[in-house]
Amino acid sequence: MLARCYAERWPLRTAFVISRGARTEAEVVVVEVKWGGIVGIGECTPYARYGESPDSVMHQLEPLLSELAAGLDKAQLQSRLQAGAARNALDCALVDWERKYKGDGFAGPDSLPTVQTLVIESPEAMADAASVAVSQGVEVLKLKLDDQLVSERVAAVRAAAPATELVIDANEAWRSDGLIERCEKLAEMGVAMLEQPLPASDDEFLEAFPHPLPICADESCHTRADLPRLKGRYEMVNIKLDKAGGITEARALADQAVAEGFGLMLGCMLCTSRAIRAAWPLGPRARYLDLDGPTWLAKDAEPPLRFGAGRVYWS
Ligand SMILES: [Mg+2]
Hints:
The protein contains 10 helices and 14 strands. By secondary structure, the protein is an alpha/beta fold. Helix 1 (54-69) crosses helix 3.
């Protein structure tokens, strides 16, 4: 099997602002594997929060790509690379190759629901973005928030979208001080779920109070190995292929998380449609799907998925 990897930059149509900072492009690494005239493609998004960059990921991948020629397979890959973006791209390329080799179309339904993300802006601008999304048929809005103007932003969006399900992602920006009161207020405002309010290192505090709304681990949950630490602290886990290190571990994580009573969210990084297609088989299992990464791109990879009315369509 021949393989190569390369980095790509995809400019965004508008800045993507979350508590951790603003981004104006998606930087991805692509792996292509080729054998028997069939090419399998996998994509990952290296994430600085987890110590990754396109260079570090390519550096991790290069020795593995030459081992493919010597017969390295998907099962061996799981122990040769740690969970993360590099293993994700290679695992997904191998799975994509296998799917095409067997002649399978794709695994899963022809469309999936997805939340629409609202990035951090003024309360008025977030309300405007919410109105636009609701008029387009979006049924679940995910608000990115930092530690400022929390109730103002939620109230503005709630007023603009009174019948829409709201979930919040704080990306570790909140502190334990005041968290209990804030959760109670959000539950009163009808917020359906809160993603990763505290830094992963402060998870223990989440044991200290009954949760008035479900709390979902994102930065705190990468693989099955994290689940024991999350019990009694989170009700849900956000599964992302880039964190799990591929669809192989992501499937196993989904199985174990459900068996242990966690609800599932399926998420993505800023990515092209290639990454969403790779995660597709997990879609029907998730309570919340956050697959709108490609909608932030000025231009998507070919063939793009189609997004509309709160759903994403395979073709
Ligand atoms: Mg998140």
